[in-house]
Amino acid sequence: MNEFLAAGLVTALVAGFLGGGHCIGMCGGIVSALTFALPPSRRHPARIASLMLMYNLGRISSYTLAGTLVGGLGQLLVSNLQEVARILSWLAVIMLILMACYLGRWWQGLIRVEALGQHLWRYLEPLGRRLMPVTHPGQALLIGLIWGWLPCGLVYSMLILALSSGSALQGALLLLVFGLGTLPTLLLTGALARQVTSFFRQPLWRQASALLLLAFAFWQAMPLLGFARELPF
Fold first, then answer.
1. For 145-175, what is each residue's pLDDT tens digit?
2. Chain segment 60-116, per-residue pLDDT in tens
3. Distances (CA, A) of 172 to 84, 85, 109, 159, 224
4. Which residue, of 3, 114, 165, 208, is most buried by count of CB atoms within 10 Å of its CB?
5. Is residue 230 part of a domain?
6. Number of domains in the chain
7. Which residues cross the membrane (predicted)?
8. Domain range for 32
9. Residue 129: inside a domain, yes or no?
10. Structure pTM?
11. Domain annotation covers residue 228
């Protein structure tokens, strides 16, 4: 495993986990809908778990597809213009810093970046609404596939990282690992919606998450600044 990919996978996993509060804000509504859409008589833990797992499978699959497409685009750019690789790497670092500022609520300008995806989302969102209420795992999978394209600054930050990888395969892996990083939060949200939402909205968690993500951004920048970066693997 090359150094860029190893560092990128660690960053993607941590970013996915630390962005839990943001994920609840973006996907919490649909997760709650999956949990409570069933009538009380059919609201069994196993059935709810199957809906949650299928929704998240669809969502992470869409992330992975997006990472593949964007990584493939980066591969085309880097193969033709070598200097582009360094520019894209810096862009990935900048996006991580902006995401840290967003999570910590120090600066909310990343909302403008999320607005860029609204053009596509206005066509996809009605398709997802037609699948509601969700009572079958197949419906949950389809909604997950659609909701994976929901405009999200955190996802866009990871897509920039995938773009800078210059590889369709690496882009897919980065977004897959990022999606897996978000999984614990969203699964817990389905089971313990009120408690989890309250925890992730605490200022202390937001500030700690932002500072850690900021540290990972600078870690990503170290080789660009000429410093060695040691990895334990």
1. 998 998 888 888 889 889 988 899 999 999 9
2. 999 999 999 999 998 888 776 667 777 888 888 888 888 888 878 788 777 777 777
3. 20, 18, 27, 10, 23
4. 165
5. no
6. 1
7. 6-39, 60-78, 84-103, 140-163, 169-192, 204-222
8. 3-222
9. yes
10. 0.83
11. no
- Residues 6+ positions from 31 with CB-CB distance below 8 Å: 24, 52, 55, 186, 189, 190, 193
Q: Which two tokens stand for residue 129?
A: 């609404």
Closest CA to 23 of 66, 49, 59, 71: 59
SS3 of the chain: helix, strand, coil, percent, to 5 = 85, 0, 15
DSSP secondary structure, 61-119, as one string = HHHHHHHHHHHHHHHHHHHH-HHHHHHHHHHHHHHHHHHHHHHTTS--THHHHHGGGHH
The position carrying tokens 């939402």 is 197
Q: How many CB atoms lie within 10 A of CB 75?
A: 18
Length of the chain: 233
Q: Cα angle at 232 between 177 and 68, to 5 degrees?
A: 25
In this structure, how many other beta carbons lie within 10 angstroms of the beta carbon of residue 97? 20
- Measured over the CA atoms of residue 67, residue 68, residue 69 and residue 74, the dihedral's sign is positive
Query: What is the residue whose two structure tokens read 């170290």?
Result: 222
Rg of the Cα trace of the chain? 18
User: Does residue 43 belong to any structural domain of this protein?
Assistant: yes
N- to C-terminal Cα distance for the chain?
9
Handedness of CA 38, 133, 146, 206 (dihedral sign): negative
To 10 degrees, what angle do helices 45-80 and 82-103 make?
140
